[in-house]
Each structure stands twice: as C-alpha cells, then as structure tokens.
Amino acid sequence: MAGDWIKWTKGLTRKPEVISIAARLGRSRQETAAILMEIWEWADEISSDGNVPSVTCVTLDALTNTPGISNAMIEVKWLEDLGNGMIFPNFSRHNGN
User: Fold this and answer.
1) Cβ–Cβ contacts within 10 Å for residue 66, how many?
2) Around Cβ 55, how many Cβ atoms within 10 Å?
3) Rounded to whole angstroms, what are the CA distances from 65 to 7, 54, 62, 94?
4) Using an 8 Å Cβ cutoff, are 47 and 96 in contact?
C-alpha cells in the first residue's frame, strides 16, 4: 500500500488499452482513465500484491458504477478473473509497498 498517493502514468489516456476499454464502454478516454484510476486506487488500499480474494466482475462494476469495466480490463489483460477472486497483473510496478 503506497500511502495516500497513486502514480498516474504519463500518456495514460492515450494507451491502446485505455482506448480499447473506452470504446467498449462508449466513454471518453479521459473518463475511462479516471475510472481505471479509481479501481487501481481501491486495489492499492485493500491489497499489497494485487490479489483481491472474493471480488467478482459484479463487485468492480458496482464499485465504479460502470457496467462492463471489469470485463473490458480482462480483455486487455489488466485484470484476471481467478474464479474465487481477481488479480491485477504487474501490480507491483505501480502499486503496493
């Protein structure tokens, strides 16, 4: 848990993954990046390694009031559904201790 800040990567709104998620959701790149930051901030608060047991796609979609965000993240490999929880791949690059 990184404390009370979270890293915003330069060019986040222009990353191909963000563009793909935005298109799938029918939202702007900027709005999509903000929603993703909210998810990553939440994950950083509750996990030190990117594993979030018992969390489902429904949970993440409800957290941000954004139906389909979790499946879109799975599609671009920014989230994995383990069946009994989720994992944020490469979490330690930007989040955690």
Assistant:
1) 20
2) 22
3) 23, 19, 5, 24
4) yes
pLDDT score for 93: 65
Angstrom distance (rounded) from CA 78 to CA 96: 16
- Two structure tokens written together for 65: 């009031």
Residue ranges, the chain, pLDDT below 50? 1-2
Distance separating alpha carbons of residues 69 and 32, to the nearest angstrom? 9
Query: What is the rounded distance in angstroms from the CA atom of residue 29 to the CA atom of residue 15?
Result: 9
Instruction: Determine the Cα–Cα distance for residues 26 and 62; give it in Å rounded to an integer.
Output: 17
The DSSP-derived string for the chain is ---S-----TTGGGSHHHHHHHHHHT--HHHHHHHHHHHHHHHHHH-SSSEEET--HHHHHHHHT-TTHHHHHHHTTS-EE-SSEEE-TTHHHHS--
